[in-house]
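In the previous chapter we treated chains in isolation. Here, by contrast, the input contains four separate entities that must be folded as one system, with a combined length of 244 residues.
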Amino acid sequence: MQMIEPQRTAAHRRLIEAQAEIFKALGHPSRLLMVEELTRGERCVCELQALVGSDVSTVSKHLSILKGAGVVRDEKRGANVYYSLVLGCVRSFLECTGRHIDQAAQDLSQDLARLAALRSGD
Amino acid sequence: MQMIEPQRTAAHRRLIEAQAEIFKALGHPSRLLMVEELTRGERCVCELQALVGSDVSTVSKHLSILKGAGVVRDEKRGANVYYSLVLGCVRSFLECTGRHIDQAAQDLSQDLARLAALRSGD
DNA sequence: GGAGTATTTGGCGAAACATGCAAATGATTG
DNA sequence: CAATCATTTGCATGTTTCGCCAAATACTCC
């Protein structure tokens, strides 16, 4: 039995949806900030709340979205809940996107400089 | 001059926002499907539309979101517009999340099996 | 067990997003 | 240049997400 057009199977669609959920979870500044902090080690909700500055309930909901997507896990210890990163490869992807954005900004300012030079030249 | 608490600078906030925009752009099944297709080479809008099956206008809007986030670029050639992947590291991250999701599914079914065994045991 | 701290949940209004249709734009071909 | 094809844009609508508040829950310390 051979798999024809694997990209159209139901299994593939489910995988894409699960992956999209991961991206969606990471696609919010507060959540991404927290995840970045978690690349340095586990943190309790209160620490993450101090980091992002929103209401605790908002932070808690953000964290539950990240957990639902399988990006982080939580562990209750005493009165606190500690969150930690599960999806380690976020770290390297963040580094890559960081470089990418820096490069884009550099390219942009070079283009602007060229444009200015051209304008003053004629 | 020393940089104190770099994670709170305006520059860092801007970076996080740009990165979050990338994740958000990827956080939609249709967009992710198209990006995955683009990891195999450039495609015109019509090909991508055939892939995802939505209205062409919807597909075009999705593509403009991906372009705005710096994930893809477009190039007009003749009557067609060809999109191609700019952010190459998406590929490896997709592989990683794919493995991660497979693993999670496996763990889940093992847990269920254990639970069933336990139940039939008592 | 009562006060205080940490976290989650429910609810609600505002803002953002997704989608399809219709219309506009741009290129090709006869 | 009229007809057609590929793509984008404007608009209307339904859906989702965000962020706060208030209330519920869970734990610790006296």
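Chain B touches chain A at residues 7, 13, 15-29, 31-33, 36-37, 51, 70, 86-87, 89, 92-94, 96-98, 100-101, 104 (CB under 8 Å). Chain B has a mean pLDDT of 92. Compare these points with the single-chain example from earlier in the chapter.
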